[in-house]
Design a protein that fits this description.
heterodimer, A: about 110 residues, mainly beta, 6-stranded mixed beta sheet, 3-stranded antiparallel beta sheet, 9 strands, B: about 120 residues, globular
């Protein structure tokens, strides 16, 4: 299973919006509406922020939103806040009972 | 609230074995599937393996197939990962995570992780 492709870094100023992409193939991202996103602060375990492409778990601010077009999924963080600075990972079901993650994106709040 | 506590990590020589445990509380353990997800130092996340709520089905990443075995004891609310023939590239923090709805493949709860270092 090949990892999904994410940009290594993204940045934005407080209050701005940032979008992080996650590109796969028709065998994973494009083939299923099973894309999830995780936020990981340094030294901490990841936290689920989006599942099934665009659903938010309870307690996750609505500043976090997800979408998908073809083989690319996207996470948008609106109204950036200092505490949003973290690593973000996407994941997707990849068929045949396999799951694949993206390489991760470091989000910097300027 | 849900608590997942991993243990059993440490330093091990290449080719040797190690067994990780994950003690779960705050949920009906026997109703949940569980995964192990790992993260090499300074690297990204990698899915390792998944076990159904009743242990009837198990799935593995190609990188560990034939070397790692996931199991569970529903009477002890504990998940296990038996790791054999360890390699340097297995060095990582191993997280125990709950499954929400396979194959949707998303993980609502994570443990704090346990570090496995494979080195001579």
């Amino acid at each position: 299973q090949s990892a999904l492709t994410q940009p290594p870094s993204a940045s934005g100023s407080p209050g701005q919006s940032v979008t992080i992409s996650c590109t796969g193939t028709s065998n994973d991202v494009g083939g299923y509406n099973y894309v999830s996103w995780y936020q990981q602060h340094p030294g901490k375990a990841p936290k689920l922020v989006i599942y099934e492409v665009s659903k938010r778990p309870s307690g996750v601010p609505d500043r976090f939103s997800g979408s998908k077009s073809g083989n690319t999924a996207s996470l948008t963080v609106s109204g950036l806040q200092a505490e949003d600075e973290a690593d973000f990972y996407c994941s997707s079901y990849a068929g045949s009972n396999n799951l694949v993650f993206g390489g991760g994106t470091k989000l910097t709040v300027l | 609230q849900v608590q997942l506590v991993e243990s059993g990590g440490g330093v091990v020589q290449p080719g040797r074995s190690l067994r990780l445990s994950c003690a779960a509380s705050g949920l009906k353990f026997r109703n949940y599937g569980f995964h192990w997800v790992r993260q090499a130092p300074g690297k990204g996340l990698e899915w390792v393996t998944f076990i159904w709520y009743d242990g009837s089905n198990k799935y593995y990443a190609d990188s560990v197939k034939g070397r790692f075995t996931i199991s569970r004891d529903n009477s002890k609310n504990t998940l296990y990962l038996q790791m054999d023939s360890l390699r340097a590239e297995d060095t990582a923090v191993y997280y125990c995570v709950t499954d929400a709805s396979w194959p949707a493949g998303y993980f609502p709860h994570w443990g704090q992780g346990t570090l496995v270092t494979v080195s001579s």
